[in-house]
């Protein structure tokens, strides 16, 4: 970890610095407390000065909310195209995070010592420690209050889990691992016809949910690949919880493992844009690197008469991030052809939210499962 330094109590203080986005420690820092006014805090945050909070924890949350409201009051410029709306939306998201992340909290061995602070140690440990049997939290750790609240929220969701009808069970996502809250793509996987595959691969498994659905469909041997350390642990725990460890092997691999398979499934990030945090890597795939890598590697890894499934949304095309015929061109260039395409409509709230800046695209979005074979 990086370290953050600041002046307090007549001497220089030092602590480990945590930023999920990989942001460096702020160069300017002031101490804030219950007397700090929201307008002053907002001005400082906009100027790049961080505020290390030393008052009541609930008041710190209220200050963060007040700063967030001021950020959100900024008028939105009319956009001429959906693509312009997207870039404007992303810029606002990033700008909002940069400002609201300026309210900082110090933890000591994972605990917040501010008055009325909740017990956050389990949430912090679950987010930052890969081996949760070991307590390696630093003596002093500074991070944004916004990020800490995200850890606490993720910890609660992780305990609760997300119900997956195809499994008749819950899937539990770790902090930094995308939760399968959009179930329509899982319905496509659960309903697509199978040609009696003996060996299947789930590329970029995340929580392990697709691998688990494949096992419930009768596939005896599934290999699930990942590169994200958190996802590797998360998938392993979910598979063990479902008692599928004899059917699913989780391996660290960049896309494909060694060998060949009868069925290879991938649900890559759907939008070709830059991800700013680990969790965003499940949504944004800069220059469609994972999508292209998957398509271009299939022919070498499919068994004769093997089949590949690609789960994709057309949101990128509706926004203007990808040309309408570009995906089909990549499929053809990879020596593949589409034998069938199943479609479904999104069921998430943003598809009906007319206030969403991308509503015009989201309301028309179609999620598809492409069944591919080698030419």
CATH classification, class level of the largest domain: Alpha Beta
The shape, in one word, is globular
What is the SS-derived class?
alpha/beta
Task: Count all strands and give the number.
Answer: 15
Could you list the spans in which at least 5 consecutive residues all have pLDDT below 50?
Answer: none
Mean pLDDT: 95
Instruction: Please give the count of helices.
Output: 12
Task: Give me the side-by-side strand order of the main sheet.
Answer: 11-10-9-12-13-15-14
Radius of gyration: 23 Å
For the termini, the CA-CA separation is: 49 Å
* CATH topology type of the largest domain: Rossmann fold
Largest sheet geometry: 7 strands, mixed
Helix and strand element order: EEEHEHHEHEHEEHEHEHEEHEHHEHE
Name the beta content range. Answer: 15-25%
Number of domains: 2
The CATH fourth-level homologous superfamily of the largest domain: Vaccinia Virus protein VP39
CATH architecture assignment name of the largest domain: 3-Layer(aba) Sandwich
Oligomer: single chain
Domain Methyltransferase small: 191-313
Organism: Methylophilus luteus
Protein name: Methyltransferase
GO biological process, one term: methylation
Descriptive labels:
375 residues; 2 domains; Methyltransferase; N5-glutamine_MTase; single chain; Rossmann fold; alpha/beta; 7-stranded mixed β-sheet; 24% strand; SAM-dependent_MTases_sf
How would you portray this structure in words?
This protein has 375 residues and is α/β, with parallel strands linked by helices. It folds into 2 domains: 2-157, no CATH class; 163-374, Vaccinia Virus protein VP39 (Rossmann fold), CATH 3.40.50. Helix content is 34%, strand content 24%. The protein contains 12 helices and 15 strands. Strands 11-10-9-12-13-15-14 form a 7-stranded mixed sheet, sandwiched between helices. It has a 6-stranded mixed sheet with strand order 1-2-6-5-4-3. The protein has a two-stranded antiparallel sheet with strand order 7-8. Strand 3 (28-32), helix 1 (38-47) and strand 4 (49-53) form a beta-alpha-beta unit. Helix 1 packs across helix 2 and helix 4 (121-128) packs across helix 5. The longest helix has 19 residues, at 82-100. The termini are far apart. One of its GO terms (biological process) is methylation.
